Fold these 4 entries.
Entry 1:
Amino acid sequence: MANKNDNKSMFLYTALIFIVAVLLIIFSFLGQTNMQKNQPQVSESPDKEMSISEKASILSEENTVLLENNNNLKKENQELSEENIQLKSDNESLTQKQSQNDLLLSANGYFTLGNNSMALETLDKVNYNDLSSDQKIIYDNIKNNIN
C-alpha cells in the first residue's frame, strides 16, 4: 500500500509540473506578441533625404490643391449667400401673403356671423394691390356679399 501512495504522489507531481509548463508556454507566447506590438516599426529601406527642390515642389503641389479648394469653397459660399437672400425674400412675401389670408379669413368669419361692420372694417385693412388673383376673388366675393 505504501507503494500505491508513492505512485499517487508521483502522478500529482508530474501533473503539477505539466500544468506549470503549459502555463509558462502560454505566458511566453502572450509576452512575445505583446512585445512585438510595442516595438516601433522598423522600415526595410532607409529614408533618403529629400532635396530642397523636391520639398519645394511637393509644397507647391499641396499649395495649388489648397488654393483650388479655397476657391471652390468661396464660390459655394457665394452661392449659399445668394440662396439665403432669395429664401429670406420668399419668406417675407409668404409672411405678407399669410397676413393677408388671415385678414380675409377674419372678414369672412365676421360676415358669416352676420357682423357686416366688422367684416368691412377688416377688409379695409387688406391691401388689395398686394393680393394674389385667388385672394382678390375671395376679397371681391366677401365685399359683394356684404353690399
Note: The two ends are 130 Å apart (CA to CA).
Entry 2:
Amino acid sequence: MYYLTAIYISIALLVLFLRKRKLNTIEISSFLAALIFPLIAIFLQIFLQGMILENFSLSISVLFLLLIVQNDKNLIDVITGLQNNLAFNIVLRDNLLQESSFSITFVHSRELKAIQTYLDNDTYNSLLQKISAWFINLAKKRFHLFSLNDHLFALVSTRHVKDETIGELSLDIIRRSQEAWELGEIEIQLTFQTSIIRVPDDCKTTNQIRDYIEQFIDLTEIYSDRHIIFAKDFVPENHLRQARIAYALQEKIEKNTLDLVYQPIYATKTKGIFAIEALISLPLNDGDTIQQSEILKVAERIGLGKRLGKCIIKNVFSWYVSERLEQHNLFVQIRLLESFCFEIDWAQNILEIAKKTGMNLSFLCLQLTETAIANTLDNLKHNMDFLKSKNVSFALDDYGSGYTDFGEILEIPFTTVKLDKKIVHAAFVDTVGKRLLEGSVSLFKKLNWPIVAEGVETDEHMTYLQELGLEYFQGYKIGYPEKGDKLLEQLKKQF
C-alpha cells in the first residue's frame, strides 16, 4: 500500500511540475494541500501501529482534488466558456506578485452592448459564443483570454510573447470589425476597439489596471471613430482625479458657487445669436479645469446628480432674470442630468424654481441625451408634456453619441435636435461619416425638426453644413464658452 501512495504522490507532483505555468497560486497551494493527506497518513502509520490509513487518506486526497477542479468552474463564464472577472483578478495578482512583465490587450464593442436589448437571449448568447470561439482561435497558447463582461474582453500575454505578436493581434481584431457575424438569417456588424497596456511600465498595481479599464470604456465613447485607444489618452491615477473632482464639486454645491459658462448658438436667418447653452466648469486646486462632460459623469457616479441638476437650474434662472435677457428674445439651453429625471415629479421642481426666480419658461430649452432617454423613458414623457404645456421646449442633445430606439425618440415631444460634434467631424474623415451625417440631416428635415450642428470649428465645417441646409450652429467657430458677463459684452453689438 505504501507503493500505491508513493506512485500517487509522484504522479501528482509530476502533473504539478508540468502544468505549473498554467496554474495560479491558489490552485498550486490547493494541489499541494491535497498531497498532505497521504503524507500525514504515512507518519501516523509509523507511530500508531495497527492503523490502516492509506486507503482513507488517498480517498480524502482525491476528493480534495475533485473539489479543486469543481471550484475552477467558478472561474469560467457559463455562456462564453471563457475565464471570468474572478479568474482575471487571480492572474493579475499572481503576475504582479512574480514581478513579471506582461501585456494586456483590452477589446470593447459598444454595439455588442447596445444590441443586447434588441436580440432575444438565445440569439444574443449564440453571438457571444461565436465571438468567444473566434477569440480562442486568435489567442491560441500565446494569450490567456478573459470575458470581463458581455462586451469587454481581455487577452493577457504569456511569457516571451513579442511586441510584434501583440500588435498583430490588435490588427486582426480591427480587421474583423469590417466583417459581419452571421446568425442564421441575421447579419450583425460589430466594431471592436482595442487598447494595450504593458505591466509594469504603464500600470504597476491591480487598482491602476482597474482604473485603466474604467477609462478605456469611457474613452471608447469619446473616441467612437477610433479603433485604437492609445496610452496617451488615459489619465494616470484617474481614481484619485475623480476623488478630487468629487470633493471640489460637493464643496461648490454646498456653497452654491458653481462656475457656469455660456456658449452662443448662431442662426443664419437672423444672422446672430438666438440662444446660449449653459455649461458647468470646475477649477481644481492644481490649476486644472474640468469640463462639463467629466463633471456630470462623476456627479452621477457619486450620487450628486440630482443636487447638481437643481443647483445649475437655479443659478442659470437667477442669472438670466437678473440680466433681463428675456427682452432680447434670447433662449437658454440647459442639460438635464439623468438622475434628476428619475424623480417622479421633476417637472414640478423646475416649475417651482422658475416661480421663485421669476424665469419665463417660454425662453427655456431643456436638453436630454439619448442615454438619459433610454434609462428614464417610463418617467420622462408625462413630465415633458407637462412642461411643454408651460411653453418649455426640448432638444435631443448629442445625437449620434448614444444608442436609442428611434421609435422611442419619436414618442417624445422634442422640438430640436443637436448633432453631436463626433457625427459632424466624421463627415470630414471618410465617405461613411459623410453619408451618416447627410442621412441624419435628411431624416430630421423630413420630421421638420430644427437642427443644431455642434462642433463647428472651421470655415470648412460652416460652408459644408450650410450646403446641407442647416441653419443653426454651435462651436468654437461661433464662440467659446464664456462667463456670463464676458459673453454679454460680446453680444452688446447684437442687442
Note: Residues 2-74 form one domain.
Entry 3:
Amino acid sequence: EDVYKLLIKSGEDVGLATVYRVLTQFEQAGLLIRHHFESDKAVFELSDSQHHDHIVCMQCGHVEEFCDDEIEKRQKIIASKKGFVIQEHSLYIYAECTKTPCPNKV
C-alpha cells in the first residue's frame, strides 16, 4: 500500500491491484524479497543486497536490518552439529523499543 500511495501522490494513475501484481512479478523474478514480520502487511526489499537479519519492534512494526558475524558463525555450528549444511536462512528478532513511549509508534 505504501508504494501505491507514493505513486498516487506523485500523480500516477495506477490501481492497487496493478501495484500488487507488479510487486509479485518482481518477487517471482528474484528482484524483490517479501517479508511479513508477523503482520498482515507485506514488506518488500531489493534482493541484491548482502545477507542481513532483521529486528522488528512489536509495538510499532519498525524494522532494523543488521549483520552479525557471531550469529552467522553460531548458526553454521548449530546446523553442523545437527547434521545440516545451511543453504540459506532468515532470522527475525521480535523485540520492543527500549524507549518509552516507542519513538516510532504511529
Note: The chain has a mean pLDDT of 86.
Entry 4:
Amino acid sequence: MNVAPETVVLAAFVAFCRIGGCFLIMPGFSSARVPVQVRLFIAVAATGALLVHLWDHIVPFIDRRPQVLAPMIVSELMIGGLIGGLARLYVLALHFIGAAIAMLIGYGGMGGTAIEENEPQAALASIISFSALLLLFVFDFHHEIVKALVTSYEVAPLNTLFNPRAALVDVTDTLSESFLLVLRLGSPFVAYAILVNLTIGFVNKLVPQIPIYFISLPFVIAGGLIIFYFAIGVMISLFADGFVATTIGR
C-alpha cells in the first residue's frame, strides 16, 4: 500500500503523542536526575521502534483535517499520560510510606538526596525508593509498560477518544490499591512506633524528672533500623510483585 509522506509523518507524530506522553511521566525516566533531552530521545527512539508494529493500528485512522487531528492528538497525549501516570502513582505511594517509616522510627530528621524529586527526602526514604526503583528495572517493568502501550491500541484505538470517566476509575483504583499495599508493607513500623511511644510515655509519667525522650531516642532508632534490616527485602519484593496487577494489569 502506497502511503503519502505526510501520512507517515503524522502517523509517527500521533504515535509519539501516546508513547512519548507515557515515557515522559513514568517513574525512572521522569526523574529530575534525567535531563529533558535524554527523556525526549528515549521517547523518540521508543516511538521509532514501536511504529512498525503499530502501523496497522495507526495509519488507517490518520486524517489530515485539523478538526479531526487536533482532538486525536490531545486524546493520545492523555492516554499515554494515564499509562505512565498510573505507574508513577504506584511509586509515589512507596515514597509516602518511606517518609512515614523514617518519621516513625525517629530517623526522619536525617536528610538525604531524593532520587525521583527535587525536594529533599529522608535518607531512609531515599534508600527505600531507590532500591524499589532499581528492582523494578531489574525485573523489566519498563518492558511491561511497553507491552501496555502496544495493548492500549486494541483497548483504546485511535478512532476512540480519551474516556475521562474510565480514566478516573483507573486512577482512584490505583491510588486505593497502592496505598493499601504500602500501608501493609509499613505496618510493622507502625506497630513498633505505637508500642515504643506508649512505653516511653508511661516511663515519662513515672519518672518525670528524667528526660526520657532524649535518652530513649538512640534506642528507638536502633530498634527501628533492626526491624528495617530484616523487613526491607520482603518489602521491596512484595512491592515489585504488585506492580503490574495494581497499575497496568487491570
Note: The longest helix spans residues 66-104.
